Amino acid sequence: CEMCIRDRLQTARSWEAQDWAARVGRIAGGRVFRKLAEAVVTMAETVTSRVAARLRAQTRLEAVVAVAPLIVLTADENGQVDWTNPHWEEITGLGLGASRGDGWLAAVHPDEREGAAIAWREALARVADGDGPPFSREMRICHAAQGKWRWFLVTGAPLRAASGKARAWMAVGLDYHERRQAEADRAEGAARLRATYEGAPTGLC
User: Fold this and answer.
1) Is 174 exposed, middle or buried (0-12, 13-18, 19+ CB in 10 A)?
2) Contact call for residues 141 and 150 (beta carbons, < 8 A)
3) If you count Cβ atoms within 10 Å of the first and of the last residue's Cβ in the chain, which end, N or C, has fewer?
4) Handedness of CA 164, 78, 137, 103 (dihedral sign)
5) How far is CA 184 from CA 85, 110, 178, in A?
6) 3-class DSSP state for residue 170?
């Protein structure tokens, strides 16, 4: 009937607006139409369940990204940064607007900036060719509040579509300045001890 059709159209409009709670309701016209209604309701419930699961996963991911002491950036398939987490801005002082595209490189130490840009482009090219490891690079990033450069290990990997093609990128930076400094201090101490041993005027054991 005309009223039934209007109700179905209204439900379709609700789903178009992502109001998955809308339902078709009873359909007059016999068994075939009732089965059609049941099938449509089942479809809506399946979509509702999947949307809810995706929202839960998204909420968990956002919570982790917000509280973890890591810098996180995402980029499009061409490697152009399109999002940064709050910790990135807290560390670098660069907001999303200044970090978009290749703007994030402004936070990298001048001595590592060109190398980081080249390594990023090479990683993009390797992945586009279906070969090579993801991006991994040590670099100094400016801590805006402290006015100091700190060493970060930045790794990046593509998020692939079902076809295998990279549809986006994610990069994560881990602050390991203290660890790197400790390793440098140990290496310096070992070198100093070796120089003392080799240059001693008497035998040592």
Assistant:
1) middle
2) yes
3) C
4) negative
5) 30, 21, 10
6) strand
